[in-house]
Amino acid sequence: MSNADLSQEQVRKMADLVGIPIDDSELPEVANRFASLMQELDRLRDLDLEGIEPVAIFPDADAG
Fold first, then answer.
1. Residue 31 burial (CB < 10 Å; 0-12/13-18/19+)?
2. In this structure, is residue 32 part of a structural domain?
3. Is residue 24 situated within a structural domain?
């Protein structure tokens, strides 16, 4: 199953698990946007990241 195959009910369950309330009238749009986001994230798998060093986005507060 690809991320685009997630049903509205599956998106509802995920939202419930993390405590995000979604109105029934908004569920189709939320599910559609989530599927689109997951498709974009899947594209990252195609990138050649060998040799790329990780960068700290949120450096430790103590390091200043």
1. buried
2. yes
3. yes
